[in-house]
UniProtKB/TrEMBL annotation:
Domain GED per the UniProt entry, residue ranges: 626-717
The protein's Enzyme Commission number: 3.6.5.5
Domain called Dynamin-type G: residue spans: 28-294
Class of enzymatic activity (EC top level): hydrolase
Organism: Astyanax mexicanus (Blind cave fish)
Protein name: dynamin GTPase
Region span, Disordered: 719-739
All copies of domain PH, residue ranges: 496-602
Gene3D superfamilies: Dynamin, middle domain (1.20.120.1240), P-loop containing nucleotide triphosphate hydrolases (3.40.50.300), Pleckstrin-homology domain (PH domain)/Phosphotyrosine-binding domain (PTB) (2.30.29.30)
Amino acid sequence: MGNRGMEDLIPLVNRLQDAFSSIGQSCNLDLPQIAVVGGQSAGKSSVLENFVGKDFLPRGSGIVTRRPLVLQLINANAEWAEFLHLKGKKFTEFDEVRQEIEAETDRVTGANKGISPVPINLRVYSPHVLNLTLIDLPGITKVPVGDQPADIEQQIRDMIMQFICRESCLILAVTPANTDLANSDALKLAKDVDPQGMRTIGVITKLDLMDEGTDARDVLENKLLPLRRGYIGVVNRSQKDIEGKKDIKAALAAERKFFLSHPSYRHLADSMGTPYLQKALNQQLTNHIRDTLPAFRSKLQSQVLALDKEAEEYRHFRPDDPSRKTKALLQMVQQFSVDFEKRIEGSGDQVDTVELSGGAKINRIFHERFPFELVKMESDDKEMRREISYAIKNIHGIRTGLFTPDMAFEAIVKKQVVKLKEPCIKCIDLVIQELINTVRQCANKLATFPMLREETERIVTSHIRDRESRAKDQVTSRKIIQLYNTYSQRRSASKSVIRKGWLTINNISIMKGGAKEYWFVLTAESLSWFKDDEEKEKKYMLPLDNLKVRDVEKSFMSSKHMFAIFNTEQRNVFKDNRFLELACNTQEEVDSWRASLLRAGVYPEKSSSSGTTENFSMDPQLERKVETIRNLVDSYMAIVNKCIRDLMPKTIMHLMINNVKDFINAELLAQLYSAGDQNALMDESQEQVQRRDEVLRTHHALKEALAIIGDISTTTISTPLPPPVDSSWLQAGQGGGRR
């Protein structure tokens, strides 16, 4: 009956399996067990039935075992069976056991030969069995049958690997004697997960069906194709015997007679056959449990320690205690407030590395998205000039004006400022959306109390929406106020600089020093040059009235590129010079200066009308006015844009973000109390109730398991594992299994 003093180990593991299965999980503990692995029709089912002494497993063609069957054999005075999924119902007729296995298999997998890794737990009590726990796994197949998927072979292999890859699992590799043992799928799978052979036991079936003149003596003696734990031969009932309802007791007697009478096996008869296999498995499983017990106990203890604190809280938990609900409400609101502030202000704990969220995303809206939206609002230059032209003409009416009208500037600026409303409103909308997302993420931590989560999210979101309308009104009023600052801003805008840079005056006589480089500053009103870029010593200031630009051919004696400025009224431009010849190092610099002069209203000599498309563009005076207002509008809008880029984040921070934080800290709890019934507000979710029950049941099962294991003596001397053997034949995958 295995090691004396250790008989209780296998029933202990059985009780642990039942306990953990009944709570719906295994607590991440690998319980010691034996997995039966083999190909289809290898005789796995017959071996198990011989252990029990009853016909109780489904039979037929193709894949018959389609779910793992956890078979617990328990030595008892009476004989019956029971299923874990039908606890309390005793089966005394084993035909009913077979029918229940088939029905339970079909319930999960359907009737189309599909497979499932969900096990069926069957416990058999009998005076004819030794304490043993085995798992009957689906037979390894190569070809799909019926409605089976094309990858059925891989599915079965994956299922088998789930069990045999565990270090706590012994592997019973069943192979028919009338096939090539070196190509056994069962032994190959065992070798993959147990290369040292520490856990693999070989079983040879169908010894009575070998060809005449052949035998498996060398294999059973572990001389040919050796395994560390060796091989045990068995003789099962033939298909004819099964159909003829041959009694298993008679079959076991016939098996004993076969080994005693066969000339190749009679010297091995005492270590062959089903009774010896059952005894050996009992012995080896008991030893295996003993060997794995220290690590198993350590795992149990770590699981218990991990659940101790939570289980202690749940054990004294009273769901309807008003003081508990009040305390929980305060804690939840405080945690919500802390989480919200951390997400907005930033925190070193629980950093999201996948995407931006909370304060980081709002910062990106302020400093990247909002400026981009402002840039998108900039008007097309040609369209702007046309609008200014129409504004000037409409203001002058029938008369021809001599001066640039201020009203044209105001009309254009008002129109440009109104366009800024869209990006400002969009900025607020983006911040609102991110605030609501942040509230939702923080509220997810209140999932234990669904009503509290829903009410908190509703109250804070409603407050955010209320602040949204106020923020939009405030931003709009700020833009209106900005319009009243037109004149003060215009004064600084009119002095704004269009361009600065070094230019060489090329037409200074040699007597006066020749060509010389100066620092030039171009504004909407004048072109000035200084001795250097510190702009302290001004050399000259040239008004832009009646000036134009002309090309100057490059001199063969100079490497510089040139252009000239002259007066259309034939007046001297600079001292005694009718034109001012300016030089740059590259043609790109010349083109850039010409473009800047064009913005200031200084047009090319022959193409002054190229900038606009209407007849009025031929009027130099009108063009001058258009360019003046255009420069003023650009300068003014640059100042407005800068102010808005600076004010919008500050306004939103004050009116919305900081306000929402203050509301959560100061008002949320009061709003929750006034929202309705606090008892209903703090009702737990069904998931939390289930979680609490699961933790308590799991903790109880683990503590009970530790107590049981603590009573077991592990000082009994077990049978030592046989020494290693040369199993390289499994890797070679070739060689005869018979002779």
